[in-house]
Amino acid sequence: MPFARLAAATTPTAHIGLGLAAVGRPGYITLGREADLPPSRSVEALRERTLELLDAAYALGVRYIDVARSYGRSEEFLADWLRARPDNRDVVVGSKWGYTYTADWRTDADAHEVKDHSVAAYDRQRAETAELLGDRLDLYQIHSVTPESPALTDKELHARLADLADRGVTVGLSVSGPEQAAAIRAALDVTVRGERLFRTVQATYNALETSAGAALAEAHDAGLTVLVKEAMANGRLAGPGAPAAVRAAAESAGLGCDAVALALVLRQPWAGVVLSGAATSVQLVSNLHATAVDLDAEHVDRLTELAEEPAAYWSTRAALPWH
Questions:
Q1: Which of 106, 152, 169, 270 could form a disulfide with 220 if both were Cys (CB 3.0 to 4.6 A apart)?
Q2: Where is the NADP-dependent oxidoreductase domain (predicted)?
Q3: What DSSP designation does 317 have?
Q4: What would you report as the CA-atom Rg of the chain, rounded to the nearest whole angstrom?
Q5: Distance (Å, whole) CA 176 – CA 149
Q6: Which of 182, 277, 191 is closest to 228 using CA atoms?
Q7: Per-residue confidence at 4, pLDDT binned at 50, 70, 90?
Q8: Quick one: angle between helices 119-133 and 155-166, nearest 10?
Q9: Nearest to residue 204, comparing CAs of 159, 163, 261?
């Protein structure tokens, strides 16, 4: 299993991955992102920024890269980098299918992505991913599964995914929304030929949204690798607008709020890989300082008190504008 390479890695940053959602397309919902990217949001400008980030991440010990079909040209940019760096075979690559990017490289599109968990969508997007990433794909996840998703019950789709697993690609899912825990537990019950289908789960978990914690612990105990996204709550836990408890912990540590937010997740015993969504190399370095943050009991207690009701958290997230 490719994640064994991460577990065997000796660098502290090996359990922090780099997600390319913020640089694979010109618009995203992270707060402050409009100031993070170059004035030109052209394909070539973002390709250059992505390659710069990937070089920095690799040099700093990051070995997991997260992309998706809906992250604009993220798979394409990553494929360019992999071809130019053939010796970097220790990089673990994960992508996702289930959303189609529809913004046509615009920031003012009415819809930036459209969800479809059908077999037809899988067949189309799997072919697209294979054309770009070929045999470098280690993990393929269903994107943003919710309890009502047909991906949890579609036997034909499960057979397709099991065939992919037989060919050496790990099969997983990401979850989203206020019922993440229910989706995770439903996924644990999906079997093909008597074997559990999903070997990884990627979920949102941060100081403001902790509702999936118990289910993620169950998934970890069942043998799944847990990946965490949005550990900084799309920017709500970073920068000067971060809650007072985060700013106090950051001041105590002498590091950034972003590092504190990531450190809180890294200390969870079930967290296998925690994703950075950095859009600049400076942000990436700051994020990686999370491995140096030692949160004391008082700060952990204050951070724990920040948790919101899941419905409120996801309502706020849904209202974030695309920058």
A1: 270
A2: 47-307
A3: H
A4: 18
A5: 11
A6: 277
A7: low
A8: 20
A9: 261
Q: Coil, helix or strand for 192?
A: strand
State which H helix or E strand residue 214 sits in.
Answer: helix 213-221
How many whole angstroms separate alpha carbon 93 and alpha carbon 65?
5
**Do the beta carbons of residue 157 and residue 104 sit within 8 Å?**
no
Length of the chain in terms of residues written: 323
CA 152 and chain centroid, separation: 20
Residue type, 82: L
How far CA 131 is from CA of 34, 128, 162, 173, 284, in Å, comes to 31, 5, 20, 21, 29
Q: Is the dihedral of CA 293, 297, 298, 300 positive or negative?
A: positive
**Continuous segment of H or E residues that includes residue 5:** helix 3-8
* Tens digit of each residue's pLDDT (9 = 90 or more) over 70-103: 999 999 999 999 999 999 999 999 999 999 999 9
The model's pLDDT over 5-49, given as tens digits with 9 standing for 90+, comes to 666 666 778 799 999 999 999 988 888 877 888 888 999 999 999
CA distances from residue 189 to 98, 118, 272 in whole angstroms, order as listed: 20, 20, 21
Decide the pairing of beta strands 195-196 and 113-115: unpaired
0.90 exceeded by pTM? yes
In order of 26, 58, 67, 156, 292, the CA distances from 18 in angstroms are 17, 10, 9, 32, 18
Phi, psi dihedrals of residue 51, rounded to the nearest 5°:
-65, -40
- Domains belonging to the chain, first-starting first, are 3-9+25-317 (3.20.20.100)
Whole-angstrom Cα distance, residue 11 to residue 81?
22
206: CB partners within 8 A, 6+ apart: 230, 231, 232, 233, 237, 261, 264, 265
